[in-house]
Design a protein that fits this description.
Distance between the termini: 32 Å
CATH class of the largest domain: Alpha Beta
CATH topology of the largest domain: Alpha-Beta Plaits
Oligomer: single chain
Shape: elongated
Structural class: alpha+beta
Largest sheet: 7 strands, mixed
Radius of gyration: 22 Å
Helix content: 25-40%
């Protein structure tokens, strides 16, 4: 199954913040990937003086299609209640299913590509990252412990394209 590699490369991260940042990255990635409907085999984080890294093994190429049932009003409910439920679900009366005198809406949603979900998730994680101290730099609004220089994000051998505060993701990393 495909692998995700995310590396946020920045200026020097204080030593006292590195391990906490790795734990926060693991927690945030787990929460957000689960919320997006993704499953995986293994999730590992690493922290170093200039980078935070996330490796997720066994992600699917896309989330599965879903069907959700939403319980509505009783079939004998006033017309106003039915109209409100139809507006909420975006369905017509003929599309509702009646069981035991109660109306249900069956809502189906197509699965989404994992790369698209990863792009959204990484943006959310970076913007909400809980550093004890953070800074802004340049004209951007992003806050991070030190200025971010590069974001490497590769899923299944291909770059996941996105941009955060003018920093585009790519497949380039660097050493000392």
């Amino acid at each position: 199954m495909p692998q995700l590699l995310l590396e946020i490369f920045s200026e020097e991260i204080p030593a006292r913040m590195q391990q906490g940042a790795a734990r926060d990255l693991e927690r945030m990635a787990t929460e957000r990937l689960k919320a997006a409907g993704l499953t995986w085999d293994a999730l590992t984080t690493y922290a170093g003086p200039r980078r935070l890294t996330l490796v997720v093994d066994g992600l699917p190429a896309a989330t599965p299609d879903r069907e959700d049932e939403v319980k509505g009003p009783k079939a004998s409910a006033p017309e106003q209640a039915l109209e409100g439920f139809l507006r909420k679900t975006g369905l017509t009366r003929e599309q509702l299913v009646e069981r035991d005198g109660v109306l249900f809406a069956v809502l189906s949603s197509k699965g989404r590509a994992t790369a698209d979900l990863v792009a959204e998730t990484v943006d959310q994680m970076v913007r909400a990252f809980p550093w004890p101290k953070s800074m802004r730099w340049g004209v951007g609004t992003l806050r991070w412990v030190r200025p971010i220089k590069r974001i490497l994000c590769v899923f299944d051998g291909a770059v996941v394209p996105f941009e955060i505060d003018g920093i585009a993701s790519d497949a380039i990393t660097e050493g000392h």
